[in-house]
Amino acid sequence: RSWFTLVSAPLNETAPATRRRSEWGAMAGMDCLIGFVGKDFAIVAADMNAARSIMVYSQDEDKILKLDSHKLLAVGGDAADCIQEPDFFKKNMDLYAMRNGVPLSTHAAANYMRGEKSYNLRRRMSQVDMLLAGYDKDVGPSLYVMMLPLHEDVSFSLRLSLLRAIYFALNGTILSPGLRYFIDYLASMQKLDKASHGYGGFFVNSLLDTHWKPDLTEAEALTLLESCFKEIQKRFMISMPNFTIKIVDANGVRTVPRASS
Amino acid sequence: SQHSRADSLRLASLSLLAFAAEAACPCGTTAAKMSGIMEYNGAAVIAMAGKDCVAIASDKRYGIRNQTMGCQMKKVFQMNDKVLVGLTGLATDQQTLEQKFRFRSNMYRLREERDMNPKAFANMVSSLLYESRFGPYFCEPVVAGLLDDNTPFLSGMDLLGAQVITDDFMVAGDCTEALYGLCETLYTPQMGPDALFETLAQCLLSGVDRDCLAGWGGVVHILTPEGLTTKHLKGRMD
């Protein structure tokens, strides 16, 4: 297709801003990710629903990716970006480890990812919530959160600023498809002791505030997670029967089976 | 004819984009809609000048709209021995800008073999923000520092880099109305470091009590010719 055709495409195609939020990677907010730090481990849990709009495709999808021997990345948001973006990060981190002989620390990995996301922020659309949990020998367990907005008007403002940037920056450049795809998420990063993403997070954050304390043992952590799951299953209108739980500690990454299942 | 085709393409695409921009806004006024983005994360920063000292304080909330995610967020950063900058607005841009400021400050240091003084730093910040005039960073910085003769320097700007330099106090964030009132009443010129800290802490804590998007503790940095002191404030966690 030539650039000429793109310019004369109907307005619906060229103004994604007019779509409702549910059409933007329809999963925004539907993925429930929970993570927190224990005594010498970091634990992450995610629901296992793969759904779009009203339809659930699968209820055994693993949303927690093993980035390297001592890092876990839980991802939520747009389904395609959740595969592509962490994959890109993982490959680059593997390359770094191969070139330099030492893998990135959790702090370095989080900052690397935030840098990539903020670079892409005003260039392309990508909707991925991330919880990075890792264990380093010198620092111990840590949890980093990269946030995604659930609200339209923020992404609108970013989109508008991008539109304006394009408006004034077109100097003989051909209007390519790449310029039309707008960012829809923000790349702010924080190191936290406990965090949760998505709509499920609204229910779980207060539970974590009350019951989390420093130096939780693994059993206590699993009990806390179970109470979080119970709350989500009781009060959240999306049915989430299954959850994945993974732990990262000095020995590496492992999956923890749920006691009740 | 190649040249004129490019021109007509540019014209068509520009008008299309302008139309899309207007069409994209449901409420009809683009300026009003954009203001939501500055309140997205929530922040409050005050800087005050005293006698040969300057102090800058911020809240510690990290939130997304009405939900608070964390209470340990850093919003004031030290760039060199004599310069501090506090950032409000969108958290991601705060973090990106902090890195950009640090980069430029360090490059200046390497090239010039001396630290950037606060006035030069503030001008640099202003021009950095204006570089992105049509796709700006959604951040309103406050620069506080001590000039070579130890007189305090305060500068604040909007997200496009329009700078204003004052000699008493500078506020930025969501609850500026509340903060202005407090600072205006409680500020006296030529305060020493302790009095300055006390005044600034009270202004911040009382001011953010009126704002649900800022608060959850505070941190005050006091910069004197001897060095930097940092004090954390216990405030209402709500």
TrEMBL record, chain A:
TM regions (residue ranges): none
Query: What CDD domains has UniProt attached to this entry?
Result: proteasome_beta_type_2
Q: What is its main location?
A: cytoplasm
Task: Write the record's keywords in alphabetical order, separated by commas.
Answer: Cytoplasm, Nucleus, Proteasome
Q: Which GO terms describe its cellular component?
A: cytoplasm; nucleus; proteasome core complex
Q: Quote the subcellular location field of this record.
A: Cytoplasm; Nucleus
Among InterPro entries, the record links this protein to: Ntn_hydrolases_N, Proteasome_beta2, Proteasome_bsu_CS, Proteasome_sua/b, Proteasome_suB-type
Calcium is among the record's keywords: no
Q: Please name the GO terms of the biological process aspect recorded for this protein, alphabetically.
A: proteasomal protein catabolic process
Nucleus in keyword set: yes
Determine the domain of life of the protein's source. Eukaryota
Describe the protein's quaternary organization and the partners it interacts with: Component of the proteasome complex.
The free-text function statement in the UniProt record for this protein reads: Component of the proteasome, a multicatalytic proteinase complex which is characterized by its ability to cleave peptides with Arg, Phe, Tyr, Leu, and Glu adjacent to the leaving group at neutral or slightly basic pH. The proteasome has an ATP-dependent proteolytic activity.
Membership in a protein family: Belongs to the peptidase T1B family.
Name the UniProt record assigns to this protein: Proteasome subunit beta
UniProtKB/TrEMBL annotation, chain B:
Which keywords has UniProt assigned to this entry? Answer: Cytoplasm, Nucleus, Proteasome, Signal
Q: Which PROSITE patterns match?
A: PROTEASOME_BETA_1, PROTEASOME_BETA_2
- Tell me the Gene Ontology biological-process terms attached to this UniProt entry: proteasome-mediated ubiquitin-dependent protein catabolic process
Asked if the record carries the keyword Nucleus, the reply is yes
One GO cellular component from the entry?
proteasome core complex, beta-subunit complex
Compartmental location? Cytoplasm; Nucleus
| Protein's name in the database | Proteasome subunit beta
Task performed by this protein? Component of the proteasome, a multicatalytic proteinase complex which is characterized by its ability to cleave peptides with Arg, Phe, Tyr, Leu, and Glu adjacent to the leaving group at neutral or slightly basic pH. The proteasome has an ATP-dependent proteolytic activity.
Q: How does it assemble?
A: Component of the proteasome complex.
| Any Pfam family matching the protein | Proteasome
Q: Where is the signal peptide?
A: 1-23
* Family label: Belongs to the peptidase T1B family.
InterPro entries per the UniProt record, alphabetical:
Ntn_hydrolases_N (IPR029055), Proteasome_beta_3 (IPR033811), Proteasome_bsu_CS (IPR016050), Proteasome_sua/b (IPR001353), Proteasome_suB-type (IPR023333)
User: Which stretches are transmembrane?
Assistant: none
> Does Lipid biosynthesis count among this protein's keywords?
no
